[in-house]
Amino acid sequence: MERDSAWNPGIYGGSVEFERFYVSSALHDDEIVVDLGNRSYSVYVGNGLAADVHSVIPDDVGKIAVVTQRNIGIRPTLTIPHKIFNIEDGEQTKSLGTIAELCSNFAAMGMNRRDLVLAIGGGIVSDTAGFAAASFHRGIRYGIIATTLLAQVDAAIGGKTGVNIPEGKNLVGAFWQPSFVLCDLTALKSLPPRELLCGQGEMAKYAFLGAEGLDKMPLSAQVSACVRIKAKYVEADEREGDRRALLNYGHTLAHALEAVGFEDPRLDLKHGEAVAIGLIYAALLAKRLGRIGQDRVDYHYRVVESYGLPTSLPVPIEPDRLIDSMFKDKKSFGTLTFVLDSRSGVEVVRDVDVALVKEVLSELSQ
Q1: 249-364 is classed in which CATH architecture?
Q2: For residue 235, what are the contacts with CB-CB under 8 A and spacing of at least 6?
């Protein structure tokens, strides 16, 4: 981790009882409130929002620890004393070692619960900075300037923070809600095409959770639609006891692919790409279980392919490697558990037969 040495001045409804959500296609800045009582906060969507971050920082903040990455070109002017800490790129950065180093830096700054951690970046930054904020002094405030499409439509919203361990992705973490989230659309203009594609993998998921006609909306409205849907799930089930788990549609296989990818360099998948493959797998599995018909499977393919995302495994993978990881999924409770589509919408399905899971994995490799 690098740091600056000097101080700087200054739904597709299913079992969830939500109405389908439609948004205006007008291009405009938007504010979405995540209503969690005394933990409520606003998510702002628009262009150039990072420059106005001072307007959402609480008045009583004394110091700010900025957690970001060198390749992120957003450095808003802050009049409050602050230090900048640059973490590395890649999932390997999301580690307990990074959390320990960040917390040591916070202590060296003399930060307390009146202060603020400001995450500027994508999901890796917000997950890591958020967990460090949740851990230091057992919880200090943090805010997010989300600079990737994946972070803006998913990772930065809802207060799930965490890091990886060798056994799997995001297995250590905390629920810790931010004070604010700025989805600055200007930052997306400099993203590499594959990073945009990564965010579209999560957007594809929302097509099955209530976002009708995303592809016909301007970008601002697309982001707002996804944020509003996620906010509703978070408000109904903040700590993922039941209904919020539906937001993990496509993620059981996706996380297993990412976990295998930690050790297998052949499996070069970004999160959104893994989710896209996971969505197709979930549809194939749901059909084998008699939950949906071929027309619905075809719809999954059309949605995923419309974004130019992958629909099959890129390389052969031993099914047992993926299944071992699936058993460690946070939804599993000791059984193979998936979020699967049905004629009434997506639902959590437990105790899925291992042999069937293997068969469908083989089908996905063809």
Answers
A1: Up-down Bundle (1.20)
A2: 34, 35, 36
DSSP string for residues in 195-210: HHHHHHHHHHHHTTTT
What are the extents of the domains in the chain?
2-236, 249-364
Whether 46 contacts 184, CB under 8 Å = yes
Task: Give the pLDDT mean for 222-248.
Answer: 93
Q: Is a pLDDT exceeding 70 seen at residue 364?
A: yes
The answer to whether the beta carbons of residues 286 and 341 sit under 8 Å apart is yes
pLDDT in tens, 6-48: 333 333 233 333 333 333 333 347 999 999 999 999 999 999 9
Q: Tell me if the domain spanning 2-236 has CATH number 2.60.40.420.
A: no
Average pLDDT on 84-112 reads 96
Question: What does the alpha-carbon distance between residue 198 and residue 122 come to, in Å, rounded to a whole number?
Answer: 11
pLDDT at residue 349 in the model: 95
Structural tokens at position 158: 């809802």
Q: How far is CA 211 from CA 28, 167, 227, 278, in A?
A: 18, 34, 10, 19
Q: Which tokens sit at 135?
A: 């851990």
Contacts of 213 (CB under 8 A, 6+ apart): 22
Q: 13, exposed or middle or buried, with CB in 10 Å at 0-12, 13-18, 19+?
A: middle
Among 201, 219, 180, residue whose Cα is nearest residue 305: 201
Which of 103, 105, 176, 187 lies closest to 145, judged by CA?
187
Give the CA radius of gyration of the chain: 20
**Span 302-342, pLDDT tens digits:** 999 999 999 999 998 999 999 999 998 777 677 899 999 99
